[in-house]
Recover the amino acids of this structure.
């Protein structure tokens, strides 16, 4: 029996355990008494606060009941925020205003959830955007988008990619670009966090990041670096299609990297297990959650097979989900946290730190449309609300102009402020924790969504597990089918899209400002790359040979990449590795 | 299928290099095929040169490119440039990219040779009907064509004539059956899903590595949809090493011909052989069943191929089933692909026994085509190469 069916079984067992506790609470007086006592104690400890208009509020909202069965359902079934099975939240006080910081438990974690994904033009352009975005932020929170050639491990001088250099993300060819990209930010600060959205070439890109940081802060910086690299190979194969090596080799390179960071970079998240791209490619919310979680469990299996300790790498796994407009999104994060916690605890015997699903959410890009595009502001606001109801640990909000351009400053600012308005201006999340958790609608949805996710797990299990199912194109075909249904629903009007198939005006296409990379910049990047290659030609040949040797002999490729990136470009590294392991063959 | 139906429209679709957004184009592919179009799908992350080369070799009526990652002006420019280079400058190019392509971009792109852009919000039906209406022009027997363009057009003519495999007398290219007999034809067949395309691609890769000058052709057959007459011909998307200037690849839809091959296959082989341009030809049949004999290994008709390879998966359903597969008597080579599957060991033993009973010196190989540099594929390639050298 593979771990996935064990997860299904353990969630079933846990649900039965919760029911038993409820029955016990209702039938055994002694148990009921101790439970209600504990409940009262918890309630008594909750601090109170006040809304700006003078309403007294507890900082944590709990069900208004003393009925022992219901108390058992809540405490065991959902858990207090920050307690197993973590349905309500990963931490006790997620976004609560820190006005009362002096009396708050100093250990409790406070989230600064806003992350704005940025990347455009050359490294110095993105660097400027980062400085613009972080002007009002307390901590450095940089989230990096790379351009197409970088995502495919190609250099900017590769035949036919010039037009894509710096489009939709930043162009990074060498360690020198990486130095420019984060210039001026203190990467050693314990609150700095850098995230990089890149997958197949992730090991080379992270190696460049480490090398660039070492150049600026010295060799001891490595263990201080804090951040996340996406590096989710499974979802690339299933949905996003940015693959460059055969699956087996790509997973090996990822494991090499995870092994290294677990040992040497204790503050680094070497993988962000992502449902976002699965959803954007067409998956339903349930499919998104099911494929993402099952991928997560597959990585745990893989890392364990490598001999890594689940309690060491477990806390360094993070998750990334989409938040769209369908109602299931109201509970997606909640349900995922619960399944993950139960699976990690009961199947993988992980300790509490490794049971916690840490969630990044992004609002849905697919839900945004070009027609009457300012409606996208409303769509994104609603999606943000749902992300926060799910107590996401961090969040990116899309810009309304994304259907036609890399976001321009005007709309990036609006997107960023949308988060501030919801978190800081409204009273929804800052005075009282858990405003919505436990509501009848959420409970119904949670049960339904959880069961559907487990059903998908069972289907995957019947195909032999995540990797065999993937070889049989199960996830891809499910996603494509869902995408097709979605399109049909829009075409038939069954799924209303305001401004497109409902209440559409005859307004012509908007011609807003576009953020495009100028050809002169693209050429400058190529010139810079050529200079780098020329300068290091001799050393690069030696470094690439060493890299190939390590790759062929089964050594840790990531450790060798840390040396190679000093003198080799991304494209040179990709070519050398492809020479050893072959190229990715797309599944159609 | 109605034999009098006029030849289907052939459209090449692709997503540009460094772009993996294939969901919209897959939806469009399905819709086009449902309306009787033969869609040759090149996949995502496609270089401009591969698109132009494929368009010429496939002799399509038009090319559709779905671009979502930006840089479309430069990319479409490059496709236009490559079409000139490969001699396909007359092939119209259309595209779309949701909201990423603006009306201002469209104006620039049209000036530079792009025929049409579909903007965000264009209903699927409208895209399909516009494509069918505007690109359904007959492809003439153009004179003065050279190289790939000439072979491609000759195959188009053979495909759209009434010629039948069974009656080679009517083949339109009899006159061409003259000069070059040196090209070796290997037929590859087997049940659907056994991994024929992947295996051929790996064989092509080995051929290209070992013959720095040689040129190879691939005729990839896929079934037409029995109702609409359309087809999605997607072999190019997964045959990554065959997207190469030294490979001439052509995707053929069976158009209702039920033998496992397009009725134009014999003619196409004659065209390729007599062109003097290719040294080695792979013909891939559609996925076949127990009674099939796509390469006419049995009976009195002239064999279509010089060597035949039957690709099987380890899951064929038991020893008795093997007795029903006639091709196990005729194939020169048998490959059990996906040899890493648990069932492979039994399959190898049972098939070996079955072949031994034939006493024809047929060779059996265990392969894992999906694995890079698989030694089983190396051995298979060496055996085919050896047979070709003896020819």
């Amino acid at each position: 029996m593979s771990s996935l069916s064990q997860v299904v079984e353990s969630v079933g067992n846990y649900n039965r355990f919760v029911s038993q506790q409820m029955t016990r609470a209702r039938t055994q007086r002694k148990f009921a008494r101790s439970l209600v006592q504990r409940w009262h104690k918890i309630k008594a400890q909750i601090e109170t606060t006040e809304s700006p208009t003078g309403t007294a509020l507890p900082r944590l909202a709990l069900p208004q009941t003393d009925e022992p069965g219901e108390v058992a359902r809540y405490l065991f079934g959902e858990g207090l925020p920050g307690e197993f099975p973590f349905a309500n939240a990963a931490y006790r006080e997620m976004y609560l205003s820190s006005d009362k910081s002096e009396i708050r438990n100093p250990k409790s974690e406070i989230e600064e959830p806003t992350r704005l994904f940025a990347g455009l033009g050359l490294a110095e352009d993105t660097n400027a955007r980062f400085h613009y975005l972080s002007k009002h932020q307390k901590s450095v929170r940089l989230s990096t988008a790379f351009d197409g050639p970088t995502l495919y491990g190609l250099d900017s001088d590769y035949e036919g990619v010039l037009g894509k250099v710096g489009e939709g993300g930043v162009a990074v060819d060498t360690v020198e670009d990486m130095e420019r990209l984060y210039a001026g930010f203190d990467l050693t600060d314990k609150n700095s966090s850098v995230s990089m959205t890149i997958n197949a070439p992730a090991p080379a890109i992270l190696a460049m990041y480490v090398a660039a940081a070492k150049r600026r802060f010295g060799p001891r910086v490595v263990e201080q670096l804090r951040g996340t690299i996406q590096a989710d190979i499974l979802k690339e194969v299933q949905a996003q299609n940015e693959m460059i090596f055969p699956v087996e080799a790509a997973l090996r390179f990822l494991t090499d990297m995870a092994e290294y960071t677990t040992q040497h970079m204790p503050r680094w998240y070497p993988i962000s297990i992502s449902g976002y791209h699965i959803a954007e490619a067409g998956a339903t919310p349930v499919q998104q959650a099911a494929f993402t979680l099952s991928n997560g469990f597959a990585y745990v299996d893989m890392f364990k097979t490598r001999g890594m300790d689940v309690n060491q790498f477990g806390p360094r796994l993070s998750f990334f989900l989409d938040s769209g407009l369908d109602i299931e999104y109201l509970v997606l994060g909640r349900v995922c946290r619960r399944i993950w916690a139960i699976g990690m605890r009961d199947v993988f015997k992980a300790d509490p730190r490794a049971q916690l699903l840490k969630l990044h959410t992004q609002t849905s890009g697919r839900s945004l449309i070009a027609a009457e595009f300012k409606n996208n502001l409303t769509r994104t606001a609603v999606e943000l609300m749902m992300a926060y109801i799910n107590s996401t640990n961090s969040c990116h909000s899309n810009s309304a102009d994304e259907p036609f351009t890399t976001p321009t400053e005007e709309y990036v600012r609006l997107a960023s402020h949308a988060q501030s308005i919801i978190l800081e201006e409204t009273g929804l999340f800052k005075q009282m924790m858990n405003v919505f958790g436990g509501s009848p609608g959420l409970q119904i949805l949670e049960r339904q969504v959880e069961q559907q996710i487990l059903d998908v797990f069972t289907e995957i299990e019947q195909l032999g597990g995540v990797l065999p199912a993937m070889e049989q194109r199960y996830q891809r075909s499910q996603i494509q089918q869902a995408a097709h249904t979605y399109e049909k629903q829009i075409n038939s009007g069954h799924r209303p899209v305001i401004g497109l198939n409902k209440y559409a005006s005859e307004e012509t296409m908007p011609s807003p400002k576009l953020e495009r990379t100028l050809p002169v910049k693209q050429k400058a990047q190529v010139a810079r790359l050529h200079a780098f290659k020329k300068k290091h030609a001799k050393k690069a040949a030696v470094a690439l040979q060493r890299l190939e040797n390590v790759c062929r002999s089964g050594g840790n490729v990531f450790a060798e990449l840390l040396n190679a990136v000093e003198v080799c470009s991304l494209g040179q590294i990709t070519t050398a590795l492809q020479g050893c392991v072959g190229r990715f063959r797309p599944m159609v | 299928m109605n034999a009098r139906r006029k030849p289907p429209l052939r459209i090449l679709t692709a997503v540009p290099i460094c772009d993996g957004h294939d969901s919209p184009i897959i939806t469009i592919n399905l819709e086009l095929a449902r309306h009787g179009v033969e869609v040759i799908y090149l996949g995502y992350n496609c270089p401009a040169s591969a698109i132009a080369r494929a368009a010429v070799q496939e002799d399509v009526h038009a090319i559709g490119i779905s671009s979502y990652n930006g840089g479309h002006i430069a990319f479409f420019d490059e496709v236009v440039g490559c079409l000139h280079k490969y001699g396909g400058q007359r092939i119209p190019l259309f595209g779309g990219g949701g909201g990423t392509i603006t009306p201002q971009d469209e104006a620039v792109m049209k000036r530079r040779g792009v025929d049409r852009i579909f903007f965000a919000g264009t209903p699927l039906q409208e895209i399909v009907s516009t494509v069918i209406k505007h690109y359904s022009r007959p492809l003439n027997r153009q004179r003065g064509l050279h190289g790939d363009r000439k072979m491609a057009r000759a195959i188009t003519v053979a495909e759209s004539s009434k010629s039948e495999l069974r009656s080679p007398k009517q083949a339109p290219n009899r006159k061409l059956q003259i000069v070059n007999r040196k090209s070796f034809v290997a037929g590859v067949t087997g049940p659907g899903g056994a991994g024929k395309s992947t295996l051929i691609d790996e064989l092509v890769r080995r051929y290209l590595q070992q013959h720095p000058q040689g040129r190879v052709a691939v005729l990839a057959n896929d079934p037409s949809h029995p109702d609409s007459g359309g087809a999605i011909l997607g072999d190019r998307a997964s045959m990554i090493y065959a997207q190469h200037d030294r490979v001439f690849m052509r995707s053929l839809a069976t158009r209702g011909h039920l033998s496992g091959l397009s009725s134009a296959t014999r003619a196409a082989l004659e065209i390729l052989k007599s062109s003097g341009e290719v040294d080695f030809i792979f013909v891939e049949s559609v996925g076949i069943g127990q009674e099939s004999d796509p390469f006419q290994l049995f009976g009195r008709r002239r064999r279509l191929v010089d060597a035949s390879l039957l690709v099987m998966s380890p899951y064929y359903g038991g020893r008795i089933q093997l007795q029903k597969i006639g091709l196990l008597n005729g194939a020169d080579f048998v490959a059990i692909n996906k040899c890493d599957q648990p069932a492979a060991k039994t399959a190898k033993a049972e098939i070996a026994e079955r072949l031994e009973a034939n006493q024809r010196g047929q060779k059996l190989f265990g392969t894992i085509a999906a694995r890079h540099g698989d030694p089983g594929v190396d051995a298979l390639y060496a055996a085919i190469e050896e047979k070709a050298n003896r020819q």
In short: Residues 100-109 of chain A have pLDDT under 50 and may be disordered. Chain A touches chain B through 51 residues (CB under 8 Å). The first strand of chain A starts at residue 48 and ends at 50. Residues 120 and 169 of chain A are 4 Å apart (CA to CA).
